[in-house]
């Protein structure tokens, strides 16, 4: 059957209508499950404890992130930073404590996919992109509601989807590379593409792990500009070791040590805290 005949095929029309209904239902469900931020915060962790073979990776950790905030998390190796993100995303279940996304969504009752669908996106330190596909195709795949790779690649993107892809390319600074295979990008450009792939999923909260690692200073500066531009529209938690990078974006800094919050506040206050100097900055 030729393409021009598909529109008159009743089975095709029924299938299209069913698909449109599924997409509409998915967006409606996402809207209804939006976090309640009426109290100002979007992430609430309290008393989180995680033990591995007797070692406490998190020891009564309490952390609150405001809606639209850009928060930096620093601390020495083994402080519990990765475990904290594992708890937020459902990868690790704590032994004790509570974790809420907004006032009503109990993260500890949800699976990793359910948490991701609610609007919590995580970017790991090493970028993971589809190297053989173009930058634009990577964004299209990330934003596809049905997540069917082959169907997405061979389907024709709607005008709305193309607009979203174009806008995301502009935000991450890769408009000129839209039709370039992602595998040929520089390390920094791959990091930006992966952030763009998260943005295509309309996240409310972004967890970003060491975004400046392995970057040139110029790439790190561009990444700092990107993250600060996203704050407000998204809530962002950045885990980072590069103190120069943290200073360039930090509005509020939390220092973890031995699974607990050691200090918290403005960067200039935190870096002058004798406890922080002793256990981290003075290393």
How widely separated are the two ends?
A: 70 Å
- Order of neighbouring strands in the sheet with most strands: 6-7-8-3-9-10
User: How much beta, percentage-wise?
Assistant: 15-25%
CATH architecture of the largest domain: 3-Layer(aba) Sandwich
Shape: globular
Q: Sheet with the most strands?
A: 6 strands, mixed
Strand-and-helix sequence, N→C?
A: HHEEEHEEHEHHHHEHEHEEHH
Q: Structural class, judged by helices and strands?
A: alpha/beta
Instruction: Supply Rg.
Output: 21 Å
The CATH top-level class label of the largest domain: Alpha Beta
**Approximately how much helix is present in the residues?**
40-55%
Number of separate helices: 12
Give the averaged pLDDT, no decimals.
86
Topology, number of strands = 10
Runs with pLDDT <50, length 5+? 1-15, 22-32
CATH superfamily of the largest domain: P-loop containing nucleotide triphosphate hydrolases
- Domain count: the total is 2
**CATH fold-level assignment of the largest domain:** Rossmann fold
Q: What do these coordinates show?
A:
The chain is globular. The strands form two sheets. The chain has a six-stranded mixed beta sheet with strand order 6-7-8-3-9-10, sandwiched between helices. A four-stranded antiparallel beta sheet has the order 2-1-4-5, with helices on one face. It is an alpha/beta fold and about 280 residues long. It has twelve helices and ten strands. A hairpin with a 3-residue loop joins β4 (about 95-100) and β5 (about 105). α5 (about 135-145) packs across α7, α5 packs parallel to α8 (about 185-200) and α7 (about 160-170) crosses α8 (about 185-200). About 35% of the residues are buried.
